[in-house]
Specification:
This protein is of the alpha/beta class and 284 residues long. The chain folds into 3 domains: 56 residues, Arc Repressor Mutant, subunit A (Orthogonal Bundle); 96 residues, Rossmann fold (3-Layer(aba) Sandwich); 86 residues, 3-Layer(aba) Sandwich (Rossmann fold). Helix content is 50%, strand content 19%. The protein contains 15 helices and 12 strands. The strands form 4 sheets. The protein has a 4-stranded parallel sheet, sandwiched between helices. A 4-stranded parallel sheet has the order 9-8-10-11, sandwiched between helices. Helix 7 links the parallel strand 3 and strand 4. Helix 1 packs across helix 2 and helix 2 crosses helix 5. The longest helix has 17 residues. The N and C termini lie far apart (50 Å).
Amino acid sequence: MPSVRSLATELGLGVNTVRAAYHILEHEGLIISRPKIGTQVARGVNSSYPSLQENNSIQSRFSQLALDALAAGYEASSIKTMMENALEIALSTPASRSLVFVECTAFDAERLASQASRMLGLAVRPVVLADLRSWLDSQPAARNTYLGVITTFFHYAEVKEVVRGLPAFGVVVELSQKALGDIRIIPRGSRIAVVCHPEASMQYFLSQAESLTSSQCEIRHAFATETAKLQELFSWADVFFVSNPCLAMVEREVPKERIFLFYDQVSEQSLAMLKEHLKSPVSS
């Protein structure tokens, strides 16, 4: 297997994140690390995990979720508990009591679906917005087996148009208290860049950035397609506020600690209201 440092460089992750992932794999007996020799896959792993071999895409999603959780600061034991809880919900929830969460990136769809699943006590399947139409085509019984589709109000109209016949639920997204706390300590006079896609409302994101930061901060903006303008911002700005689909692009140029999203979780009030709605006789 590649060294920790080379794999971190290839994936664009921190060295400590990859090292922690290797430690988990070694603890599970899947790999063996030897000084001066390197890391190798343990013998017998292939025959022990045939289902993972057969579906590399699912394995990749599990691996990415684990890496994301490690990068966010979760301990290995907490990650195992979260995955076990998610599996218990999935096993105890029939398809007719499941939901779909649609967002514009796989990272957001999976993260927000996981949060919704915990709060609603139901299995919630993540689907990327661009794949929604083809996913529905591959699920001819979806309208009879799923309770509905959840999405943020940014995409509600588009999602509702695609999933005709399947209930669509819009939810509000917001920043977690941790993110708000980090934003509050941005120094006055900081130079702030706002980045989003052309189809998004730049004025909305600028208003959000202004409301979250000191009035003494200078704010400039660029769309993700404005290459020259973006390069100027990468050199100029102290802090970046980015719409979620632009995160990966900005992370290639800017350290993560200088980047803030406009939302990182679903409003708990939105999910509480949805939970009550799903309990009602009309929705069942």
